């Protein structure tokens, strides 16, 4: 009777052997993608287990308990198998204490323990069998465990695989010995022996297959010590092999104009076949977007398209990987261990890189990186010349990229031509529009004059005297209308052609505004329009052309009157501000359609140009206003006031800025006045940023001995014109001589500088003078003094100024070049104007408050001085790109459409472009570009993640969000500070860097805690912000 | 006895004033309106013998007003003279298309306008 004691034990033992062999095999297959062998092993194991259990159950006298235990063993084995599969396929954690590994080890041990238990319970343990089991028990788990552990270290087959194979052999050998022994010793064990022999045969076959496959399917790293020589066409022909002819074939396709995507597919296909790689990826560097895009991708013999990458590979990362990880030559091997977290950048999302290397070959043309090819998961060990093959194919890629670039250039120039034509068409349309508008505007008064004149002549004898008087006065009025129109046309044309004669003298804005209102008194009375004039008690005076300012006011006020319905009101107000005068003209009309707010300053533009338009006019009035304001370096814009009409705002800078005429320079083309206007903008910007009443730029003359003031704000004109300072003389002269900055907190306390020397220039006790350098040579001095609030200049101020000095030196240098070629000049000016404009719209005080918060956060995070300066400057210009976004999108009330979002998302890059002619510090530029990146990579424009976003930009992100939340949004109410803070805390870790949010919250808290005496308390913050909020609510900004 | 009723429509008050004077002194009764809407309304109520209509006016322009007048049985027989600054041929053609009897371009001669009024009123009364 077959009791199956020793046979069964042996059998179970063999089952385990199979499972172990499967495990080892799976581990060796490492990438774990080959599911078929695993499935086969599992199926075989399952069938064997079930058949054995059935056999035991059916055998007379068979022990059902044992059969159940046998089943349990089988199930445990299957679980172990699954675990191993998991290891092979999914696991990324290769630490020894990975729960799955522990489980695998423990279950292996348990199973053998159980075998031993069952076996020893039946009869006396045979020593040989026991020994064989014991030896297996010791080696098997260790082999498995150690093998897996080693894989973590180096994903190389060499050591691990051999060890696993050896372990499997050793185990099977010892098992066989035990089996043979117990089989020989048995009595009536025909069935057991038969099964056992079949099993042994199976195991042998299995092992043979395994070893065979391991030897052939395994890849070894294609190392090479010498970089290969570049290929020539003769090499290609000489190669003669498939690769050579294929490359030529592909070249022909490229020349023949085959579609780009098809060519890429063919290239990837060829690489796949040539290298036997299961994974081939071709990515091309897109210069415009500054990132890699997937051109071709094959996986397991199929073309794929889905290539999202968890981490976007940056050019620098690739370059870094090239340099450091490259074993040799143009390609390099990467293993997971080498790359750490960056490995995600090389493999598409979803495709897990469990083990082994991939080969990355950068594609370079003339040293320029154009893309890269990645291959991996080789079916057959690649030939030693795999790098050569890849390099050959990369020549095809270079060809196609070059072709596409050429095509793009052609397309671009075609587009440029088209847009040029569109511009011409628009100009033409404008011209005919102008003709019809002007002819109508002329016809109307002329019609009246003619009709009245004829009627008068006809009836001169019969008509009453009173009527004659009335008729004549109508003719007089209509005549005035014609004159006014012609005047407008003339002055506009002279402004356009640059022949305008601007004569700046001291202007009293109060009296100009009063006089202007008087001229339209009649219209006001006729239209029953009320006026509200709000002038400051003290007259506002500035340097301007009084006639032009009068014309500006006339146009603005009559425009307002024209659009105000009967019984409406026109409000004119004037305010003096730190750096200029603010004139506001507000009507109670219907306001201006949002999409027209920017266009109405264009010449000949009319909001309503139809036959039914209610309002006449040549469409020149506002264009003239804009010109006048710009000739005074001011700014003009219009905004709708909620349910109350339109509000025109004019800012005229205080013209205490003096720019010396450059005597030895000729006037070249359109840059006639540009140099002066540019320098005054520069001085204004410096004084704005440092809140200084006085600022000046001094430069060394041609003789390199004397310093002259070339542009100044707040200084006596005579001083500017006549001052010459020798090197070494006074402070400016000393700065030149020593090449070092002077920063004096309080001149009375400063021992180094006597008061005597400086009384003429430095009106106040605190000032900063810093050298302007061209390379190492000192060429000038930049001075600021007289803080607007009367405080001392701080070290931070000095740093800002030093940051500026570099920019200014560069700009001044460029200025000469610009004057010669008038290139980029407009851009530079536009950038500076935008900076001033954004300060104007936000209010410098508000901006300063947010800057204070940002700096406090920066200080908490321990940023270095350079970063702090960048932060402070960046805060003033980061949202510049917004000015380039159409207003209709910026302030849209409804949810934005997908397309509009796309436009809005361009603003960081637009700001970057706008600022680039200024040559600012890279940190500032990065802030501008990346302030909408989110911590988790979901932001824009580049989807940077975590530390990829510069720390300054991360801080800015939090502050900007805070600013946006507490101000009124286009489609939501304004948040309170608490709400805003909580909102930001909620987005910590997703949108924002938790560390920065932490610092930000603490700063807010501190501001609140420092209640009295401090600069800002939370109450104060709240009050300040409340005001900002109100302002935003009013303007709808 | 008045010769007839003339409705003068123009948004320029100076024009309606001078036409009121010169047409009125020829013995016509003159009514005025300053936009298309008002013109249609007055034409219905007052049944003038002739309408002088400007084209570029707020609310309803002259073309549209003429079309509406010509579509209404009560007003469709009243001759309409378009008096406008729009001087291109195409404007003129459009004017006749909407049913105007005459098209006079500004600046105009009041005398000639009155002659046309005489002629039109004689024709229409025959």
Features:
heterodimer; A: 1037 residues; alpha+beta; Beta-Lactamase; Heat Shock Protein 90; seven-stranded antiparallel sheet; disordered N terminus; disordered C terminus; B: alpha/beta; Rossmann fold; five-stranded parallel sheet
Describe this structure in words.
- The termini of chain A are far apart.
- The N terminus and C terminus of chain A are likely disordered.
- Chain A is α+β, with helices and mostly antiparallel strands.
- The longest helix of chain A has 74 residues, at 386-459.
- Helices cover 56% and strands 13% of the residues of chain A.
- With 126 residues, chain B is α/β, with parallel strands linked by helices.
- In chain B, strands 2-1-3-4-5 form a five-stranded parallel β-sheet, sandwiched between helices.
- Chain B is globular and about 35 Å long.
- Classes of the chains: A alpha+beta (1037), B alpha/beta (126).
- The interface between A and B is medium-sized, with 26 and 28 residues.
């Amino acid at each position: 009777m077959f009791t199956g004691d020793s046979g069964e034990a042996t059998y179970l033992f063999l089952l385990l052997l199979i499972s172990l062999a499967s495990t080892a095999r799976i581990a060796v297959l490492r990438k774990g993608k080959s599911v078929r062998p695993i499935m086969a092993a599992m199926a075989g194991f399952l069938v064997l287990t079930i058949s054995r259990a059935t056999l035991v159950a059916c055998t007379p006298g068979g022990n059902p308990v044992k059969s159940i235990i046998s089943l349990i063993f089988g199930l445990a084995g299957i679980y172990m198998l699954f675990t191993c599969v998991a290891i092979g396929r999914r696991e990324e954690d290769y630490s020894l204490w990975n729960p799955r590994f522990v489980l695998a080890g423990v279950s292996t041990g348990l199973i053998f323990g159980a075998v031993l238990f069952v076996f020893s319970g039946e009869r006396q343990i045979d020593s040989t069998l026991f020994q064989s089991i014991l030896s297996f028990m010791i080696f098997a788990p260790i082999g498995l465990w150690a093998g897996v552990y080693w894989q973590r270290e180096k994903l190389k087959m060499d050591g691990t695989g051999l060890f696993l194979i050896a372990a499997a052999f050793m185990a099977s050998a010892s098992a066989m010995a035990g089996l043979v022994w117990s089989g020989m010793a048995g009595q009536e064990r025909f069935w057991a022996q038969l099964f056992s022999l079949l099993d042994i045969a199976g195991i042998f076959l299995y092992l043979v297959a395994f070893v065979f496959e391991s030897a052939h399917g395994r890849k070894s790293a294609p190392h090479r010590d010498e970089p290969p020589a570049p290929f020539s066409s003769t090499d290609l022909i000489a190669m003669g092999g498939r690769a050579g002819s294929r490359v030529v074939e592909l070249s022909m396709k490229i020349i023949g104009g085959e579609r780009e995507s098809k060519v890429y597919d063919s290239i990837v296909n060829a690489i796949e076949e040539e290298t036997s790689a299961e994974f081939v990826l071709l990515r091309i560097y897109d210069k415009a977007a500054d990132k890699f895009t997937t051109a071709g991708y094959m996986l397991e013999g199929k073309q794929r398209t889905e290539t999202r990458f968890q981490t976007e590979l940056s050019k620098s990362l690739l370059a870094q990987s090239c340099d450091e990880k490259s074993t040799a030559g143009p390609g390099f091997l990467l293993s997971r261990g080498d790359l750490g977290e960056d490995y995600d950048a090389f493999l598409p999302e979803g495709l897990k890189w469990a083990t082994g290397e991939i080969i990355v070959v950068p594609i370079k043309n003339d040293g320029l990186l154009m893309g890269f090819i990645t291959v991996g998961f080789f079916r057959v060990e690649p030939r030693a010349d795999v790098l050569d093959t890849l390099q050959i194919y990369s020549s095809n890629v270079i060809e196609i990229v070059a072709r596409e670039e050429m095509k793009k250039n052609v397309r671009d120039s075609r587009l440029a031509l088209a847009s040029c034509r569109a511009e011409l068409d628009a100009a033409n349309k404008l011209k005919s529009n102008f003709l019809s508008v002007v002819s109508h505007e002329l016809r109307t008064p002329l019609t009246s004059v003619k009709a009245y004149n004829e009627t008068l002549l006809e009836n001169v004898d019969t008509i009453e005297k009173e009527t004659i008087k009335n008729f004549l006065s109508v003719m007089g009025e209509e005549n005035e209308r014609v004159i006014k129109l012609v005047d407008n046309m003339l002055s506009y044309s002279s402004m356009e052609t640059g022949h305008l004669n601007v004569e700046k003298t001291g202007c009293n804005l109060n009296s100009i505004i009063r006089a202007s209102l008087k001229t339209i008194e009649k219209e006001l009375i006729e239209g029953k329009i009320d006026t509200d004039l709000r002038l400051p008690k003290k007259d506002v005076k500035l340097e301007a052309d009084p006639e032009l300012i009068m014309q500006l006011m006339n146009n603005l006020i009559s425009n307002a009157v024209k659009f105000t319905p009967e019984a409406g009101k026109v409000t004119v107000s004037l305010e003096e501000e730190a750096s200029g005068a603010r004139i506001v003209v507000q009507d109670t009309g219907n306001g201006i359609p949002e999409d027209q707010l920017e266009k109405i300053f264009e010449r000949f533009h009319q909001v309503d140009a139809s036959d039914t338009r209610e309002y006449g006019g040549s469409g020149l009035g506002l264009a003239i206003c804009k010109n006048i304001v710009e000739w005074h370096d001011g700014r003009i814009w219009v905004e709708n006031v909620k349910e109350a009409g339109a509000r025109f705002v004019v800012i005229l800078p205080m013209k205490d800025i003096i720019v010396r005429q450059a005597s030895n320079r000729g006037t070249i083309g359109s840059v006639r006045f540009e140099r002066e206007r540019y320098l005054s903008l520069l001085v204004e910007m410096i004084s704005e940023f440092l809140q200084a009443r006085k600022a000046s730029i001094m430069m060394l003359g041609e003789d390199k001995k004397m310093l002259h003031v070339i542009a100044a704000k707040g200084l006596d004109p005579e001083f500017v014109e006549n001052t010459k300072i020798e090197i070494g003389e006074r402070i400016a002269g000393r700065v030149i001589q020593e090449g070092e900055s002077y920063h004096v907190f309080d001149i009375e306390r400063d021992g180094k500088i006597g008061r005597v020397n400086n009384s003429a220039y430095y009106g106040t006790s605190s000032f900063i003078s810093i050298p302007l350098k061209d390379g190492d040579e000192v060429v000038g001095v930049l001075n600021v003094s007289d803080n607007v609030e009367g405080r001392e200049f701080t070290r931070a101020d000095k740093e800002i100024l030093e940051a500026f000095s570099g920019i200014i030196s560069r700009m001044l240098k460029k200025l000469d070049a610009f004057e010669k070629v008038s290139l980029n000049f407009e851009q530079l000016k536009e950038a500076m104007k935008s900076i001033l404009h954004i300060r104007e719209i936000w209010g410098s005080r508000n901006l300063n408050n947010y800057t204070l918060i940002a700096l406090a956060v920066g200080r908490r995070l321990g940023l270095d001085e350079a970063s702090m300066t960048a932060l402070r400057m960046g805060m003033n210009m980061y949202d510049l790109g917004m000015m380039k976004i159409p207003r209709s999108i910026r302030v849209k009330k409804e949810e934005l459409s997908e397309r509009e979002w796309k436009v809005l998302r361009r603003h960081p890059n637009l700001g970057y472009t706008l600022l680039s002619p200024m040559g600012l510090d890279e940190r500032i530029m990065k802030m501008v570009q990346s302030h909408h990146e989110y911590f988790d990579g979901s932001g824009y424009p580049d989807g940077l993640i975590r530390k990829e976003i510069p720390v300054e930009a991360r801080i800015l992100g939090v502050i900007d969000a805070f600013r946006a939340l507490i101000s009124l949004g286009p489609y939501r109410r304004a948040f309170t500070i608490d709400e805003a803070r909580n909102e930001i805390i909620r987005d910590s870790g997703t949108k924002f860097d938790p560390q920065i949010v932490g610092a930000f919250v603490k700063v807010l808290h501190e501001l609140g805690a420092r209640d009295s005496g401090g600069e800002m308390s939370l109450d104060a913050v709240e009050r300040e912000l409340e005001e900002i909020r109100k302002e935003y609510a009013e303007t709808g900004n | 006895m008045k010769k007839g009723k003339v409705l003068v429509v123009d948004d320029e008050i100076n024009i309606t004033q001078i036409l009121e004077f010169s047409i009125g002194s020829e013995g016509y009764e003159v009514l005025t309106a300053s936009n298309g809407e008002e013109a249609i309304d007055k034409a219905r109520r007052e049944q003038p013998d002739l309408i002088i209509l400007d084209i570029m006016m707020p609310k309803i322009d002259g073309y549209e007003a003429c079309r509406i007048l010509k579509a209404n049985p009560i007003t469709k027989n009243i001759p309409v003279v378009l008096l406008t600054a729009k001087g291109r041929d195409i404007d003129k053609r459009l004017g006749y298309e909407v049913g105007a009897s005459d098209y006079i371009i500004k600046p105009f001669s009041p005398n000639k306008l009155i002659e046309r009024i005489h002629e039109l009123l004689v024709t229409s009364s025959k």
